[in-house]
Design brief:
Number of strands: 2
Distance between the termini: 52 Å
Helix content: over 70%
Largest sheet: 2 strands, antiparallel
Order of helices and strands: HHHHHHHEHEHHH
Strand order of the largest sheet: 1-2
Radius of gyration: 19 Å
Structural class: mainly alpha
Shape: globular
Length: 294
């Protein structure tokens, strides 16, 4: 499959994935609202302390993960963390729909067991869409627009620095992409690409710029946060104006697709997926604010 057809296939897969995550988030959001679910936060919904808290959690967790992976190289810690996070995320979601905890427990065990036994990329991705939709709905339902928007901006800046400056995202990618974890979504011919080929693609090279021949690309790896964090901001806007929430979703989707297009047409080793989404979201939010003030 040539690079052009691979790119189009992957961009279409990403479109369907993002749309599915958004629809799940909308469904759960409306369910929360109809059920009158009460969500406790560390501060009032519009307090900027929420921004500080979530940003600090993301940074601290990333630092701890990097230290653990570098300290215990021979232990498969990432797989253990993935199973732990996967189980409790799926269990937490399904516990919303059953009075008894038995069914959520059995469903969680079954899904995670099947994922690990079959090594199915699509089952893993499906679980990711469910988890991403849940957290998008949860944050959008519980927090105001301002703290979530500022969090998205901070993460966009951090994403840029992590990919182009400190490059620790490259290290994390090396540890994650061949483990079939919920931390990354896989698209394209991921099953036909060996672990060595993947690692060679993202391994830094000793040149002035980190480049790769775009014609050689036939797969894509997106971090779960590349969907989850913008979707939180989208749902926060959806909570106050569903029309602009939908517009914001398509703005972020187009921005992400543009990032993928650039990745497949330029010689970039990797590109941060959140900055362009943050710009697209900011434009829509700005228009909403201006219209609201008129």
């Amino acid at each position: 499959m040539n690079s052009f057809s691979s790119r189009n296939k992957i961009m279409f897969q990403v479109f369907l994935s993002y749309l599915l995550s958004f629809l799940i988030a909308v469904w759960l959001f409306l369910l929360f609202r109809a059920s009158g679910v009460t969500v406790e936060t560390i501060a009032p919904a519009n307090s900027l302390w929420n921004t500080v808290y979530f940003f600090a959690v993301i940074i601290v967790e990333t630092v701890i993960l990097i230290l653990l992976l570098k300290t215990f190289k021979k232990l498969n810690l990432l797989k253990g963390i993935d199973i732990f996070v996967s189980f409790f995320a799926v269990f937490g979601i399904f516990s919303l729909f059953f009075e008894s905890l038995i069914w959520p427990l059995l469903i969680s065990i079954l899904l995670i067991a099947v994922k690990e036994i079959t090594k199915s990329v699509w089952l893993k991705n499906a679980i990711v869409f469910l988890v991403v939709g849940f957290f998008g709905a949860y944050i959008g339902y519980s927090l105001g627009i301002l703290p979530v928007f500022l969090l998205l901006v901070l993460i966009a800046i951090y994403d840029y620095i992590a990919v182009f400056k400190t490059k620790h995202m490259v290290f994390l990618a090396n540890q994650i992409i061949d483990k079939n974890t919920l931390f990354v979504m896989d698209y394209g011919n991921v099953n036909t690409t060996s672990t060595t080929e993947i690692k060679q693609e993202i391994k830094p090279v000793k040149t002035k710029e980190k480049e790769i021949d775009p014609s050689k690309r036939n797969h894509l790896h997106l971090g779960t946060g590349d969907f989850a964090l913008p979707l939180m901001a989208i749902m926060a806007l959806f909570a106050v104006n569903w029309i602009f929430g939908i517009i914001a979703f398509f703005a972020c989707l187009l921005s992400l697709e543009l990032t993928i297009y650039l990745l497949f047409t330029k010689k970039h080793l990797a590109l941060p997926a959140i900055p362009l989404q943050a710009i697209g979201y900011t434009i829509v939010l700005g228009i909403y604010v201006i219209i609201s003030l008129i």
